[in-house]
Specification:
By secondary structure, this protein is mostly helical. The protein has one domain (10-344). The protein has helices spanning 10-39, 44-69, 71-77, 86-102, 123-180, 187-242, 249-280, 282-287, 296-310, 325-344, and strands at residues 316-317, 321-322. It has a two-stranded antiparallel ribbon. Helix 2 crosses helix 5. The two termini are 43 Å apart. The model is unreliable at 79-84 (pLDDT under 50). It holds the Pfam family 7tm_6. The chain crosses the membrane at residues 12-31, 51-69, 124-147, 218-242, 254-277. InterPro entries: 7tm6_olfct_rcpt. This is Odorant receptor.
């Protein structure tokens, strides 16, 4: 996904080939699960066991497409991808795979139900297929971890930029205040300095707003897919957990998967919500300075700047979903309601 910009020639060729192989494996696995769901699944248990992993893989495919389509734009924003939660997704994927392998299943039934173009009833072919499924799940976990730490990492950078902006405003006001308290100062030079300082500050503020809009446009499509499938994935996972004994490998695998899915959507919501809070606090930080000792023209400029900061900055995907803690709470409520319906039906 993230080919180093210094790679050319055979390195670039093999990395592009690697990307194509990963796409074929991931999309092929997702298609095979979908075909099994449509043409093979005949009971509610088969449907529930397949649908939540299928939706998770659809989410992975959407993120692959989103990242590849916007790779240049994303690279301009952040060159380093933080993978702090890779372990969580890898353990969750491995746990649920091992849990399915240890569960009481018919002979030669794969951990993840798929339609394959070959006969895997022979032991060696069956083992090879299981290993391939396990590798695809681990690769998918790495992709999820990479994407799901990229977005909050960028959100944290925006928060840092806003805090720097607050500090710069404080420094500007303090500097102008000290100049005005001097017994003799050049009024014309003071006005020029005042204009230049506020002009630079406004430009920085506009740059941060522009960056926020750019990030929203890059990630909005992928994240709305995340919101769309998360509710159903969570409730089906809870349903599957309720159908097995507590002290089993299958329960542990599903539980780890549930934790990973909840953490995934929570990271998106809390990081975007924090940016919204930082933007909303900007006008208050400006008001808490000694702006009242400045010149009349400076006060007018500050009033206009504060009016600009009063408009809330909320990350959303069109008019379909907003990325905030309220959205996370609403998603949890929808998940519980859907689970209650499944349990009583």
């Amino acid at each position: 996904m993230w080919k180093p910009i210094t790679w050319f020639g055979w390195k670039s060729y093999f990395y592009n080939l690697y990307t194509v192989v990963i796409i074929i494996l991931t999309y092929g696995f997702t298609l095979a699960e979908g075909l099994d769901l449509i043409f093979v699944s005949s009971s509610i248990d088969d449907f529930m066991n397949n649908i939540f992993s299928l939706l998770a893989m659809v989410n992975v495919c959407a993120k692959i497409a989103g990242v590849l389509g916007k790779r240049k734009d994303i690279y301009k924003i952040s060159q380093n991808l933080q993978t702090g939660c890779t372990t969580l997704f890898e353990i969750a994927g491995a746990g649920i795979t091992i849990g399915r392998m240890c569960a009481d299943r018919p002979e030669n039934e794969l951990p993840y139900r798929t339609v394959l173009p070959y006969d895997y009833s022979k032991p060696i072919i069956y083992r090879f297929t299981v290993v391939m499924q396990f590798l695809i799940i681990c690769i998918s976990g790495t992709i999820l971890a990479g994407f799901d730490t990229l977005f909050p990492g960028i959100m944290l950078q925006i928060c840092a930029k806003i805090n720097i902006l607050k500090h710069r405003f404080q420094v500007i006001v303090t500097t102008l205040e000290e100049i005005r308290y001097e017994k003799q100062y050049d009024v014309i030079k003071y006005q020029q300095l005042e204009t230049n300082l506020f002009k630079v500050w406004i430009k920085s503020h506009n740059d941060i707003l522009r960056l926020s809009k750019e990030i929203e446009s890059i990630f909005s499509t992928v994240i709305i897919i995340q919101f769309s499938v998360s509710a159903f994935v969570l409730c089906t996972t809870i349903y599957l957990i309720s159908q097995v004994s507590v002290f089993t490998v299958e329960f542990a695998g599903n539980f780890l998967y549930l934790i990973a899915m909840v953490a995934q959507i929570f990271i998106f919501c809390i990081s975007a919500h924090q940016v919204t809070l930082e933007f909303s606090d900007l006008s208050q930080a400006m008001y808490n300075t000694n702006w009242f000792v400045l010149s009349t023209s400076a006060k007018r400029s500050i009033v206009l700047m504060m009016v600009r900061t009063l408009r809330p900055i909320v990350f959303s995907s069109g008019h379909l979903a907003t990325f905030s803690l309220d959205s996370f709470k609403s998603l949890m409520k929808v998940t519980y309601s859907t689970y209650s319906v499944l349990k009583t039906s």
